[in-house]
Write a structure and sequence with these properties.
Layout lengths: L1 H12 L12 H10 L5 H12 L4 H12 L4 H22 L1
């Protein structure tokens, strides 16, 4: 999971305007959510996604942002990638 996050962040940093489609894989997004699942309200949102695979984009982004406030630098970066993945999926649903 860490390698996938690092790869996406490196690839995005190398581009002046990275496309919204340049995100972690579905499996890595699930892994990030599983890593941050907990008994907290935001952790429960992430756990719901981890266990069921369904998302509410706004709830997931808010939960990931809350968790970023408590995460290590690596965890913060992983949650940043999860937020990008969510935005990509929501954008796919709109188009």
């Amino acid at each position: 999971m860490a390698a996938g996050v690092s790869d996406v962040l490196d690839r995005r940093a190398a581009l002046k305007r990275p496309p919204t489609t340049l995100v972690v894989s579905d499996a890595i997004a699930l892994g990030i959510a599983g890593l941050f699942s907990s008994a907290t309200p935001s952790g429960r949102v992430l756990e719901h996604f981890y266990r069921r695979g369904s998302i509410d984009g706004a709830d997931m982004i808010e939960a990931a942002r809350v968790e970023q406030g408590f995460a290590s630098p690596e965890g913060h970066a992983a949650l940043h990638c999860l937020i990008g993945w969510i935005r990509s999926r929501v954008n796919d649903q709109i188009n």
